[in-house]
Design a protein that fits this description.
heterodimer; A: mainly beta; seven-stranded antiparallel β-sheet; 2 helices; B: alpha+beta
C-alpha cells in the first residue's frame, strides 16, 4: 500500500495513504484555504442536525400499547408505536419489544416478530409486511413531483434465522406510486445493517395534508398476487403484482422463524448517517400525535345533567395535539363519585377534537348531597388512536 | 379487527343521525369509531357491514 509522509516542523508526521485497490481514484481538494474534517467531526455535525430521521420511534423504545402481543394474524396491528403489521394468511406471530440489539450502537430495544403457527404454502393473496406511514405534510421537502425530487436513504439493523431475499418498498399513497428494492439477510442469527438508497420521484406529488404521504415497508411474506409482475426498481404507478420480489422469503414458513429490526432511519439524500438518537420524551410526544393513553384510575372533574337519565360528563385535554379529531376511542369502564363511594356507570358517547375528548356516561342515580365535588374515574384501558 | 356487535350512537342528542358506532370485538375490546371515511377502523366496520352484518340503531 503506497503512502506519503509529511513531517512536522518540530515533531510528528502525517501519513497520506492510498487504498489497496486497483484503478485510479481522484480526490479533489477545495480551491480555497480550509481544513478537512475528520470522520468523528463529520459524524458530530450529522448528529447535531435534527430532526432528520423521517421515521418515528425507529429505535423501538416507545411501546404505549404494551411490550408483547401474541396471536397476531391480520392487518392494522400495532404494538411498538408507529410500526404496523399488516397482511393475511401469514400464520400466527407474536410481536414484542425485545432487548436483543446490535452491540455498540446505543440501542436498547428492537421489534421482534416470532412465528408461532406456520404457513409454508402461501396462497396468492397471503402476505405479511411491516410498515410505517408518514404524514404528507412532513414530506414536502422531498420535492416529489418536481425535477428537484430528493433521493431517499433508509438504513436499519436486522437479524433473523431466515436468510435470503427480502423486499424494501416505498409506497407513495397519493399516486399511488412505488419503488421497490431487494435486500439480503446474509448470515443467520446475526445483526446486519442494511442501507437502501432510492431516487426521488419526479412525477408523483405527495399531498400536503395530514394523510399518509409515504409508506416504508418490508415484505416478510408475499403470495403471487404481489410477486407475479416485475419488481419496480424505479418509481412507477403502483401495481400489486410488482410490489415484492419473486425471491422474497416466506418468514411464516416455520415456527423456528423470527426477525428483529431496530435503528430504522429514513433521511433525505444518498448517505446513511449515524442513527439519530432522540430524547425519549421527544420520541414519546411524536408518537402521541398518533396514539395516546388517557390516565386511568384518576378522578376527573365532572359535570352532571339529567335528560331522561342521569348523565355525567367530563373533558380530558391531551398533552399532544393529535393528527386528527377522527380518532378511534378504545374505552373501558367508568365510575362516578357518589358521595364517598364510586359507582359504575355505562359509557354512552364522546365528542372529540384533536386536543380534547368529552366523555359521557349514564348512571343509575343522581349524585347525593354529601358535599363531594362530582368526579369520574376511567377504569381499564382508555386509548385514542389516530394512526394512519 | 373482529367485530362481534355494533351499535350506532349520536354524540349529541340534537343530531338527527348517528355519527359514532360503538363496537365490541370478539376479544372483548370496546371501541367508539367515528363514522368518517378517513378513519381506518371505520373502513373495517364498512367491511363488516359488507359481509351482511347490521348494527343496532341509535336511540
Amino acid at each position: 500500500m503506497a503512502s506519503i509522509k509529511l513531517r512536522g516542523d518540530t515533531s510528528g508526521e502525517i501519513t497520506i495513504q492510498a487504498p489497496a485497490v486497483a484503478g485510479t481514484t481522484t480526490l479533489n481538494l477545495p480551491a480555497t484555504s480550509s481544513t478537512l474534517a475528520t470522520t468523528a467531526q463529520t459524524e458530530a455535525i450529522y448528529n447535531s442536525l435534527g430532526v432528520r430521521n423521517l421515521i418515528i420511534n425507529g429505535d423501538m423504545r416507545i411501546a404505549q400499547r404494551g411490550t408483547s402481543s401474541s396471536g397476531i394474524t391480520g392487518s392494522g396491528i400495532y404494538l411498538i408505536d408507529r410500526f404496523n403489521i399488516s397482511g393475511n394468511g401469514y400464520g400466527t406471530f407474536t410481536m414484542s419489544q425485545d432487548t436483543d440489539v446490535p452491540s455498540g450502537q446505543g440501542f436498547s430495544n428492537s421489534l421482534k416478530l416470532d412465528c408461532t403457527t406456520a404457513n409454508a404454502s402461501l396462497s396468492a393473496s397471503n402476505h405479511m409486511v411491516i410498515v410505517q406511514r408518514i404524514e404528507g405534510q412532513n414530506l414536502q421537502h422531498l420535492k416529489f413531483g418536481t425535477s428537484s425530487a430528493e433521493k431517499l436513504t433508509v438504513s436499519f439493523w436486522v437479524k433473523s434465522n431466515k436468510t435470503g431475499t427480502y423486499t424494501n418498498e416505498f409506497y407513495a399513497t397519493d399516486g399511488p406510486r412505488h419503488i421497490n428494492k431487494e435486500f439480503t439477510i446474509n448470515s443467520a442469527d446475526t445483526w446486519e445493517k442494511k442501507i437502501i438508497i432510492v431516487d426521488g420521484d419526479t412525477s408523483g406529488v405527495i399531498n400536503n395534508d395530514n394523510g399518509s404521504g409515504l409508506e416504508w415497508l418490508i415484505w416478510l411474506a408475499a403470495g403471487t398476487d404481489f410477486t407475479s409482475g416485475t419488481l419496480h426498481t424505479s418509481w412507477d404507478t403502483a401495481n400489486n403484482t410488482d410490489r415484492a420480489s419473486s425471491s422474497n422469503v416466506n418468514l411464516a414458513d416455520s415456527t423456528s422463524n423470527y426477525i428483529n429490526i431496530t435503528g430504522v432511519q429514513l433521511e433525505v439524500g444518498d448517505t446513511a448517517t449515524p442513527f439519530e438518537h432522540r430524547p425519549w420524551d421527544m420520541e414519546l410526544v411524536r408518537c402521541q400525535r398518533y396514539f395516546q393513553r388517557l390516565p386511568e384510575n384518576v378522578e376527573y372533574l365532572t359535570s352532571f345533567y339529567f335528560d331522561n337519565t342521569s348523565r355525567y360528563c367530563t373533558t380530558v385535554y391531551f398533552p399532544v395535539i393529535m393528527r386528527t379529531s377522527s380518532q378511534t376511542i378504545a374505552y373501558g369502564t367508568a365510575e362516578y363519585r357518589n358521595g364517598s363511594t364510586y359507582t359504575n356507570g355505562t359509557y354512552l358517547n364522546n365528542q372529540r377534537r384533536n386536543n380534547l375528548i368529552t366523555i359521557r356516561i349514564t348512571c343509575p342515580s343522581a349524585p347525593d348531597s354529601s358535599g363531594y365535588a362530582l368526579g369520574l374515574r376511567l377504569i381499564g384501558t382508555w386509548t385514542l388512536d389516530a394512526e394512519l | 379487527m373482529n367485530i362481534q356487535l355494533a351499535k350506532l350512537v349520536k354524540s349529541d342528542n340534537n343530531l338527527t343521525q348517528a355519527d359514532l358506532v360503538n363496537v365490541t370485538l370478539t376479544d372483548g375490546t370496546t371501541l367508539s369509531i367515528p363514522l368518517e371515511e378517513s378513519n381506518r377502523h371505520y373502513q373495517e366496520y364498512l367491511e363488516w357491514l359488507s359481509e351482511g352484518n347490521t348494527p343496532e340503531e341509535a336511540e
